[in-house]
Amino acid sequence: SSGINAEYGGPGGGHSKAKCPVNIEGLTIEGALFDGHKLVECSRDSPSSTPISNCCVAWVPAGQTKTQDNLLETPVYYNSSREQQVTSIKIPCPGSPETWKLKSVALILKNQ
Fold first, then answer.
1. Which residues does residue 71 pair with via DSSP β-bridges, in sequence order?
2. Which of 53, 64, 74, 91 has the fewest CB atoms within 10 Å of its CB?
3. What is the per-residue pLDDT across 25-64, written as a single tens digit (0 to 9) for each?
């Protein structure tokens, strides 16, 4: 298939073979927590959004992406109103990605 995919590579890299990795700072996550490696369920007293560590993403040609089954294609929105989706990033998650989709996990670029 054709197209591109953005995959999370962790702080400082993870995409050594990518031609154009991009470091992103200042993202927040809603619907889950992120431990730097994978999604983690929120606790009852978790804030509605939390900052995540800086990450490196890379656009990888379709067909050359990780074959890992437990990657959630996480939408990235311009702000927390979630009216304007900018892109999506595949983030590792424990269990089925479908479970995480039901939690409405999303990344936010700009706090309102």
1. 92
2. 64
3. 889 999 999 988 889 999 889 898 999 887 777 776 666 6
Report which DSSP code applies to 53.
Answer: -
Query: Quick one: which of 65, 72, 57, 75 has its CA closest to 14?
Result: 57
Identify the band that residue 74 occupies on the pLDDT scale cut at 50, 70 and 90: very high
Write out the two tokens for 91: 């983030």
**β-strand pairing of 106-110 with 71-79:** parallel
Q: Is 95 left (phi over 0), alpha (psi -120 to 50) or beta?
A: left
Burial 70-88 (b: 16+ CB within 10 A, else e): ebbebbbbeebeeeeeeeb
